[in-house]
Structures are given as C-alpha cells and as structure tokens.
C-alpha cells in the first residue's frame, strides 16, 4: 500500500479533546503517579560489567541505540564484548553514538550499523535478511526502538504509526530472525533471548478487538488518540511475548521471550507532546535516568536468575503481573494471526 498522506486524525475535534483528557491527562497522570511510587521503593539491580564473563563472539541485534535507553544499552553491551548490530534510521547517528561511547573509555565489543526504518516493512525485511546473510548466529534480539504519543500518521504500509513502529515491525523482525535464534540456542547451554521493551502503559489499554488495530481509522468510535495508540501498541508487545514464548516452549527450543518496562525515563520520546514533554523533563529528577532504565533491560537480556523461565512481563528487574488482557490466550492468538496477515 502506498503512503497515505492523510494527516487529519479520525474523530471530531470535540471527540479528540475528550480522548486527550481521558488518555493523555487522567490515564497518563495516574500511570505517572503509580510509576513514581513503584520506583521510589525499588532500587535498580546493577551489573558489575568488569566482573561478568565477556561474550566475545556473541551477536546482539538492537533496534535503536542512538539516544536514551538504547544508547546506554549499547554501551553496556559493548562493555560485555558483544558484537552489536544496530538498526538505525540514520547511519551517521549510529556511528556518532558509537564514537561517543568509545571516547568514554569503552574499548571492548564491536558494532555494525545498518539502516532500519520501522515505518517501512520493506526496510525491516531488508535489515533482517542482511543479518541472516552475513551472520551465522544471533544470541539476543533487543526490540528497543519506538515512538510515543505521536500525532496521527499512517505508514507507507497503511498502518497507524504506533502500531507499526512499536509492535508490527518488531513482530516481523522477530519472525525473520527467529530461525537464527533457534539454531544459535541449539548450540548453547544458556538460552537465546528476545527482549521487547514495553511499558507499564500497557496496563492502560482496554483493547479486546485487536483486529481494529490494523485499521487506518483505528476502529474505536472512529476516534484517534496518540496516547491510546501508544498504550495499545505496548499491550500488543506483551501479548505477543506471552504467545511466542509459549509456542517456543512447546517446540522445546532454547529461546526465551521477555517484555520489560524500563521505568519512566524522560527521554526524547516526550518531545512530541509539547508542554507535557517539558513537564516530564522537569520531573526527570524524580524518575529514573536512562542508565538505570538500561540496567533493567539488561537484566532481562542477560541475567542468569531468569534463565529457566520465559514469557515474563518485568518491572524493576522482577516478574510482575501484566494487564489481565495480556494473559488471554484467545486475544494472544488473534493478534498473532492478525500480525501474520499484516506482514
């Protein structure tokens, strides 16, 4: 499907205003409060990267990595001597991020920057197929990149941007790389891992008819909310995490899947919500920084404490109960089958 230039979101101005108040003020405010209280009583488990056995020769695929949590994840991975393949929109931004890390004193690890536009399924396929062609192993897939609270936009494939960038493109990438993860896991004593960087915001989603997610008009009373779109995309990540891990268990493969909330991290993702983004940056001192968020993601990616159990939704480096909808096998299966038809 060609790019749709429609910029007017579904729903009347009055409907969108009501939607903004509910999802963008009330729900977002509630999520911010409970996250603040949760983080206040939990310290971040930090790794001593000097003491951890190096992973030279092992390969990590990371979407993003040029800023925010992704940048700190990249730094941590290099400290462990991984070879990191970065999927980035702008190669120069990826190279600049690596150079900054090198200047900070990290000399271990190797990197490769490949172009990846998550708003294009064609780009995702090319990225994944390049990795399959060039690498004989993939040990970890970190689906990190994403967008948040963006204005209404349809991708070149005809999908709402949050749905595609945060979920559908990563679904496709996972499907492409899964055979390589399986074959790598078969040769290791430790499991290969797929980590979906989700959010506690998935608990604010009430989506049950997942088929409407693929609709350009978004389905829900024909009304769009960037906040709701973000919440729903994060629920999709948790749903697919649960479903895929269960399938892999039945197959007996040595691959586990995790969804992780890194904390409320005031990063560049908030830049699209104007004054509310400025408020989030002012509140940054009360929340976690990107380094702490990266440590939480790293826990899901490398910690031996969860080696034997996949399919987890995690907050503060511990197992948490997700949105009840995420545990519904029927909804999991419906989303999975929908996603297969979309890609």
Automatic annotation (TrEMBL):
Signal peptide as annotated in the record: none
Protein name stated in the entry: Short-chain dehydrogenase TIC 32, chloroplastic
SUPFAM superfamilies: NAD(P)-binding Rossmann-fold domains
Alphabetical list of Pfam families matching this protein: adh_short
PANTHER family in UniProt: PHOSPHATIDYLINOSITOL-GLYCAN BIOSYNTHESIS CLASS F PROTEIN, PHOSPHATIDYLINOSITOL-GLYCAN BIOSYNTHESIS CLASS F PROTEIN-RELATED
Keyword line: Membrane, Oxidoreductase, Transmembrane, Transmembrane helix
Coiled-coil segments on the chain, per record: none
Organism, scientific name: Orchesella cincta (Springtail)
Chain segments annotated as transmembrane: 20-37
GO molecular function: oxidoreductase activity
Organism domain of life: Eukaryota
InterPro entries: NAD(P)-bd_dom_sf (IPR036291), SDR_fam (IPR002347)
